[in-house]
Specification:
Layout: E1 2-6, E2 9-11, E3 17-24, E4 32-38, E5 45-50, E6 57-59, E7 67-72, E8 77-82, E9 91-99, E10 102-105, E11 109-113
Parallel strand pairs: 2-11
Antiparallel strand pairs: 1-3, 3-8, 4-5, 4-9, 5-6, 7-8, 9-10, 9-11
């Protein structure tokens, strides 16, 4: 199983980024997909989750109204659209796939919000 994140980078406060996570080696449409993030010195936290069919989404309070998670099961890809970015959004963002006891992680992509 491979989860490969892309789309991270340096952005100014108020800007936008779109992260992508391409999955392979699993039946993607059966897995709930999530984005987590980990800032330096902090624990990894859940940012957003989307159900296997895409009908249910959940967000951390800190990103509600700014981030949107979506998925394309035909492309085995999950996205995170991040708008109105703040310096406190700076972190390594990880893709996660989960189905019962099967849990997989990507390698992470750095997002830095700074002027």
């Amino acid at each position: 199983v491979q989860l490969v994140e892309s789309g991270g980078g340096l952005v100014q406060p108020g800007g936008s980024l779109r992260l992508s996570c391409a999955a392979s080696g699993l039946t993607f449409s059966r897995f709930d997909m999530s984005w987590y993030r980990q800032a330096p010195g902090k624990e990894r936290e859940l940012v957003a989750r989307i159900s296997s069919a895409g009908g249910i989404t959940n967000y951390a309070d800190s990103v509600k109204g700014r981030f949107i998670i979506s998925r394309d099961n035909a492309k085995n890809t999950v996205y995170l659209q991040m708008n109105s970015l703040k310096p406190e959004d700076t972190a390594v963002y990880y893709c996660n796939a989960a189905l019962i006891t099967y849990v997989y992680w990507g390698q992470g992509t750095q997002v830095t919000v700074s002027s």
